[in-house]
Amino acid sequence: MDIYVDTSVFGGYYDDEFSEWTRKLFYEFEIGSHNAIISDLTIQELEQAPEIVFGLLEKIPERYRENIFVDDEVIDLAHHYIRENVVSENFYNDALHIALATRHRSDVLVSWNFRHIVNLNKIRQYNAVNLKQGYHMIEIRSPREVLHER
């Protein structure tokens, strides 16, 4: 499965509330059970994080990792989310993460951001915009929900 990983997942590795599930997900990336989709936006955000969090990128072998990039199509889709009031301009990066995963046809986006991303109402709104703009629906889940063994 191709899993788009947003920045919150990396932070969850060292968070008491989320570490158990995040570490299991990283293990599944390490052994190749899933492919990690990592965007330039995620890397840019990780550069602002503590070095120990940024270093988690090295835990994902290159052969199980795909790097993707923000392009004009991603930016346009993110602006549609904002215009449709799914999220405000203040949360533009959240809209970009959804647009990146959608544009690059990830099987699922994982996040620990329950306010703007892993939220049933928001997921429905993102998908309504996706369908209106001719894209597929995107699965959005917490890391716990995509693990082979729970």
Brief characterization of the structure:
The protein is an alpha/beta fold and 150 residues long. The protein has helices at 7-12, 19-30, 40-46, 51-54, 72-83, 92-103, 120-132, and strands at 2-5, 35-39, 65-68, 108-110, 140-141.
Walk me through the structure:
The chain is α/β, with parallel strands linked by helices and 150 residues long. The chain has one domain (2-146): 3-Layer(aba) Sandwich (Rossmann fold), CATH 3.40.50.1010. 44% of the residues lie in helices and 12% in strands. The chain contains seven helices and five strands; from the N terminus they run βααβααβααβαβ. It has helices at residues 7-12, 19-30, 40-46, 51-54, 72-83, 92-103, 120-132, and strands spanning 2-5, 35-39, 65-68, 108-110, 140-141. The protein has a five-stranded parallel β-sheet with strand order 3-2-1-4-5. Helix 5 (72-83) crosses helix 6 (92-103). The two termini are 16 Å apart. The mean pLDDT is 97.
Most strands sheet: 5 strands, parallel
Main sheet: strand order? 3-2-1-4-5
CATH class categorisation: Alpha Beta
Element order: H for helix, E for strand:
EHHEHHEHHEHE
Distance between the termini: 16 Å
Radius of gyration: 14 Å
Ranges where pLDDT stays below 50 over 5 or more residues in a row are none
User: What would you say the CATH architecture is?
Assistant: 3-Layer(aba) Sandwich
Structural class: alpha/beta
Share in helix: 40-55%
What does the average pLDDT come to? Answer: 97
The number of distinct β-strands equals: 5
- The fraction of residues assigned to DSSP E strands is 5-15%
Q: What is the approximate shape?
A: globular
